[in-house]
């Protein structure tokens, strides 16, 4: 089986702009081609679009707009982890030999229909994500004796880190007090605890080992993939203070890459809400159970950018279909040592954690130089 | 019998597989273990609180009925506690979404 690597990438600014989805897709693809002059459109065998947008036939539309005539073209949708699902599909096409080079492009608009899972009637009239987030937060605080004030470090850190990310939606620093005093959505969740839906696009070009080395001097390899879907409905989760699908996905990805959680130098984790960051760190094995916030506080105090250097979802914004790709681009830049002010020293092994619908589905990727 | 037509009348009926002796949730025509057709029966109107939170002055929570059906619903009386028993006060379908309202007992 060939190695699969990242040959190029492009990303747009995340914003509240009212752009057409097709235009958002094309913008990040243009940036991908602008950043690597060795690329030939004719070499692209597959174009995969990652989005929750309701527009149809988007991979064919994008291919036509970008002057590509791929063999394989289709959309991948899996709510918030559509992006990494599309990367896994691209990887599989290349590893199987069905394709040699695959363009994956993710995009979303601020008004994405992917924000609410209408099917999940077990949530009753509480279908908006703030309600599962409130249940997770309440349960996590109860289990580990954590306070709202302690959780507030997550948005403080991630907005701060986003200030060095030119594509992030956040343009402001917030204090612990700002978070606590922000609009109370429920007893367990405030406005600044939430990532924001936005408009944004991100694209990655994946290729087989030989082709990748021909296109770039600085390839980054996907060495581990793990995925797990435990259910679709939020209420099927048997625990609300940890992420079972994330634990299983991480274990599979680390095993495939022959790595241990201790080897991870830098990670993008799916902080859809404040509580998700410590929960993810614990479920990924990057911290002990109940100790995620201790790690976050230690990193913040020492200005160590190891977790969510681009600002995570809370700082960068969360354009659903583009998020997994944006996370993967960040880890790629970190491993290429070209993340500028966000650079984590000597980053060699990176991890991406991308999940959907109250952690009912998770993808974990391990990336290496 | 149809789950949604009964729920519209304010009645929670329970899909159960006679082959597996299991409640199938979310409601479905077929058992998710053996694909046999489910049968429908009147369910318990009682449940217990698994977790809860509060929006404005209204408590809402995750309620478990008959040890297997879990739904999010309003808790409309008093201050809830974990594990506390509740009964269904109201349920139905509004604007395409199910709704459940529980009273503490």
Helix tally of chain A?
13
| Rg for CA atoms of chain A | 19 Å
- By CATH, the superfamily of the domain at 4-113 and 197-215 in chain A comes out as Thiolase/Chalcone synthase
* CATH domain class of the domain at 4-113 and 197-215 in chain A: Alpha Beta
The end-to-end span of chain B amounts to 30 Å
Dominant shape of chain B: globular
Mean pLDDT of chain A: 97
List the helices and strands and how they pair.
The complex is a heterodimer of chains A (369) and B (105).
Chain A: E1 4-11, H1 21-34, E2 46-50, H2 58-65, E3 72-76, H3 82-96, E4 101-108, H4 129-144, H5 148-151, H6 153-162, H7 176-181, E5 184-186, E6 189-190, E7 200-208, H8 209-215, E8 220-229, H9 244-256, E9 266-268, H10 276-284, H11 292-301, H12 312-316, H13 320-335, E10 349-356, E11 361-368
Parallel strand pairs in A: 2-3, 2-4, 9-10
Antiparallel strand pairs in A: 1-7, 1-8, 4-7, 5-6, 8-11, 10-11
Chain B: H1 3-8, E1 13-17, E2 22-23, E3 39-42, E4 46-55, E5 58-65, E6 69-75, E7 85-94, E8 97-104
Parallel strand pairs in B: 6-8
Antiparallel strand pairs in B: 1-2, 1-3, 4-5, 4-7, 5-6, 7-8
Please tell me about this protein's structure.
The complex is a heterodimer of chains A (369) and B (105). With 369 residues, chain A is an alpha/beta fold. Chain A has a domain at 4-113 and 197-215: Peroxisomal Thiolase, Chain A, domain 1 (3-Layer(aba) Sandwich), CATH 3.40.47.10. A nine-stranded mixed β-sheet of chain A has the order 3-2-4-7-1-8-11-10-9, sandwiched between helices. In chain A, strands 5-6 form a two-stranded antiparallel ribbon. Chain A is built from 13 helices and eleven strands. The A-B interface holds A 118, 120-127, 131, 134-135, 137-139, 142, 185-189, 233-236, 240 and B 25-26, 51-55, 60-62, 70-74, 82, 94, 96-100.
């Amino acid at each position: 089986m060939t190695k699969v690597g990242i040959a190029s990438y492009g990303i747009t600014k995340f914003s509240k702009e009212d752009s057409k989805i097709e235009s958002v897709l094309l913008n990040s693809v243009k940036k991908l081609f602008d950043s690597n002059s060795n690329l030939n459109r004719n070499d692209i065998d597959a174009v995969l679009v990652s989005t929750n947008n309701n527009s149809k036939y988007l991979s064919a539309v994008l291919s036509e707009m970008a002057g590509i005539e791929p063999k394989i073209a289709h959309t991948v949708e899996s709510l918030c982890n559509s992006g990494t699902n599309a990367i896994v599909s691209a990887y599989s096409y290349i590893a199987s030999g069905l394709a040699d080079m695959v363009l994956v492009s993710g995009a979303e608009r601020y008004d994405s229909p992917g924000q609410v899972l209408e099917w999940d009637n077990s949530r009753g009239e509480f279908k908006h994500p703030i309600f599962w987030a409130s249940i997770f937060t309440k349960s996590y605080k109860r289990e580990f004796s954590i306070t709202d004030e302690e959780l507030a470090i997550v948005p403080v850190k991630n907005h701060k880190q986003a200030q060095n990310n030119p594509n992030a939606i956040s343009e402001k620093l917030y204090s612990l007090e700002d978070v606590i005093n922000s609009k109370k959505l429920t007893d367990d969740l405030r406005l600044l605890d939430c990532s924001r839906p936005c408009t944004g696009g991100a694209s990655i070009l994946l290729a087989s080992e030989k082709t990748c080395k021909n296109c770039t001097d600085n390839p980054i390899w996907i060495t581990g993939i793990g995925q797990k879907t435990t259910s679709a409905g939020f209420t099927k989760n048997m625990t609300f203070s940890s992420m079972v699908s994330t634990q299983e996905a991480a274990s599979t990805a680390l095993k495939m890459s022959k790595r241990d959680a201790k080897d991870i130098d830098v990670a993008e984790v799916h902080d859809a809400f404040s509580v998700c960051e410590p929960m993810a760190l614990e479920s990924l094995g990057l911290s002990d159970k109940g100790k995620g916030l201790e790690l976050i506080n230690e990193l913040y105090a020492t200005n160590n950018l190891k977790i969510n250097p681009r600002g995570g979802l809370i700082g960068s914004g969360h354009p659903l279909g583009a998020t997994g790709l944006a996370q993967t681009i960040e880890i790629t830049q970190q491993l290429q040592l070209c993340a500028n002010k966000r650079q984590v020293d000597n980053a060699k092994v990176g991890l991406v954690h991308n999940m959907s619908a109250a952690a009912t589905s998770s993808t974990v990727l391990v990336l290496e130089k | 019998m149809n789950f949604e037509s009964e729920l519209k009348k304010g009645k929670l009926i329970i899909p159960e597989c006679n082959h597996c002796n299991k409640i199938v949730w979310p409601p479905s025509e077929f058992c998710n273990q053996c694909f046999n057709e489910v049968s429908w029966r009147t369910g318990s109107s009682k449940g217990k609180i698994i977790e809860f939170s509060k929006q404005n002055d209204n408590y809402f929570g995750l309620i478990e009925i008959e040890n297997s059906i879990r739904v999010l619903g309003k808790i409309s009386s008093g201050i809830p506690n974990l594990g506390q028993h509740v009964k269904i006060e109201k349920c139905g379908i509004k604007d395409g979404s199910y709704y459940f309202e529980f009273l503490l007992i």
